Amino acid sequence: MTIVGKPCGLLNQCACAIGGLISIDFNNPSKPIINPINVDFAKYNHSLCIVDTKGNHADLTDEYAAVPAEMKKVANFFGKEYLRDVNPDEFFNNVSKVRKACQDRAVLRAIHFFNENERVSKIIEVLNQDDFDEFKHLIQESGNSSYRFLQNVYASSDPQNQAVSIALAIGSTKPSCFHCLGDE
Fold first, then answer.
1. 45-48: which pairs have CB atoms within 8 A and are 24 or more residues apart?
2. Within its chain, how far is the Cα of 156 from the centroid?
3. I need a surface site. Which of 49, 83, 136, 166 has the fewest CB within 10 A?
4. How does pLDDT run along the chain (184 residues), one tens digit per residue?
């Protein structure tokens, strides 16, 4: 999807518009299925917060456009338009062939996609089971997967500026130190 000349997904916009924790199925992009996930963070002595990492997305148009383009390239390898229509087992059984046809970053991004879809289902399940510790673990896995496999947290053309990478590192090692991200 392109909004005001920038390629972007709808996930963040929908989450902000609806508020709280949600799951979204984009099988039909014009009519996504949005499901609120009711969780009382206060019950677990936690808060859902937005952190200003001091990052800048001004020059990331090409970086963001590459994500869906590379995932579609992998899907096309299997004769599909979208990666969601590719059988994960078929993908993993053919990784070496996909690497040759689509290159490594596209393969890593597809790995993130398949794992993240499974992870979202697990997140909903553990919240329904009142397992907040596993929820936190899965959320950290998600962030680490975005960093390692989706590779969408900094511009490859500007590796010296990695504000979101720093936030993920602090969040997974010293979450009480998020105040360190701001200017002193």
1. 46/132, 48/20, 48/21
2. 17
3. 49
4. 555 566 666 777 777 788 778 888 888 878 888 888 888 999 999 887 777 777 766 667 788 889 999 999 999 999 999 999 999 999 999 999 999 999 999 999 999 999 999 999 999 999 999 999 999 999 989 989 998 999 888 888 888 888 888 888 887 776 665 555 555 4
